[in-house]
Amino acid sequence: MSDYASPPAEGAYLGRAMADGWAHPAVVTVRDGEVLDITSAAAPTARDICEMDDPAGFVRTAQGRSVGALRDVLRDSFENRGAGRPYLLSPVDLQAVKASGVTFVVSLLERVIEEQARGNPEKADAIRGDIAGLIGDDLSKLKPGSAEAQAAKAKLVARGVWSQYLEVGIGPDAEIFTKCQPMASVGFGADVGLHPVSTWNNPEPEIAVIASSGGRIVGATLGNDVNLRDVEGRSALLLGKAKDNNASAALGPFIRLFDGTFSMDDVKNARVELKVEGEDGFSLEGASSMAEISRSPEELVAAAMGPHHQYPDGMALYLGTMFVPSKDRGEAGKGFTHKVGDMVTISSEKFGALVNRVKLSPDCPPWAYGASHLMRDLARAKLI
């Protein structure tokens, strides 16, 4: 079983927690190894704190009550969820949850391979080799929309492997899509869900930035953009089915807010590590380096929101991943796919770890608590 890695002590953290009997989800922070409930009329939601001029300063000084030691809350979030003890929720609430795709060259090539393979993992290795032989596999220095990027694209088009993924990977416009609705993401320790029609799927270890309604990035968290490779591979028009299912968007454990100890440079230089441990004894490890992203976080946020599209409650935006697991699991040549019971750990030095267990989406707790429920509960508590 994976360790429940705590985030570094020096950070300013924002999260959400719940326990049986509580009147509403609590807005929480971490201080001196304790999880503190800082919910108040000034900050009834995580969204409200992210809209402040100084979110980090607020969570460092806000009065609160202890709901438990951090190590215990992390443990209970995974091992005793729903057993009357406090557990973590997704750290965002009213924010839109969006995602950017094909932001790393490796991801670009794999998406082209998925499309060419038409969801058949047996064909993927042969296509991968063909494309690498044509243009190489190190396109990390290509700037999307540049003349060099267009030349690389032209070679692939000439071979007959033009793809929608090429257009968003090295063309001028980024891919931005809706990962889930506000209040639908799950947090540390929760089950993550796979649509039961999928037989070829994978985790996507990512960083998600948190932007205010004005487009200001105020912090970041870890994310798992659960992906159905066979569904999206059959058609890019099935992206919604491949990406947005019950419990398919995980975020956490906390938002690390920008302050003197943590900045956008830390996001841009982060190394995001992935470990998958199966009940069958299978183990997979990999890493994604944010330094190799082809579009900056600021560019991706600007592509998602601005004069052309507003988000009055702000936004969480997955930044994409360069890691696509291809290690065979079982029969040679069929690559990696999840099995029910897999434990997925996504970690990074500045964030701690996001840990979730894989189930089928219908077997995960149904999404039954939305924005209307939160507003009613906060109103009853006289917090809004």
Structure at a glance:
This protein is of the alpha+beta class and 384 residues long. 27% of the residues lie in helices and 27% in strands.
Keywords:
about 375 residues, alpha+beta, eleven-stranded mixed β-sheet, five-stranded mixed β-sheet, 12 helices, 18 strands, about 25% strand
Secondary structure elements and pairings:
Elements: E1 12-18, E2 26-31, E3 34-37, H1 46-50, H2 55-61, E4 65-69, H3 70-79, E5 87-89, E6 96-101, H4 105-117, H5 121-135, H6 147-158, H7 164-170, E7 175-180, E8 191-194, E9 201-202, E10 205-211, E11 217-225, E12 227-228, H8 229-234, H9 239-243, E13 249-257, H10 264-268, E14 271-277, E15 283-289, H11 297-304, E16 315-318, E17 343-348, E18 352-360, H12 371-380
Helix pairs in contact: 4-5, 4-7
Description:
- The chain is globular and about 65 Å long.
- α4 (105-117) crosses α5 (121-135) and α4 runs antiparallel to α7.
- The chain has 12 helices and 18 strands.
- β14 and β15 (283-289) form a beta hairpin.
- The protein is α+β, with helices and mostly antiparallel strands.
- The strands form 3 sheets. Strands 1, 2, 3, 4, 5, 6, 7, 10, 11, 13 and 16 form an 11-stranded mixed sheet that branches. It has a 5-stranded mixed sheet with strand order 8-18-17-14-15, with no helix packed on it.
- It starts with 11 loop residues before the first strand and ends with a helix.
- The longest helix is centred in the middle third of the chain and has 15 residues, at 121-135.
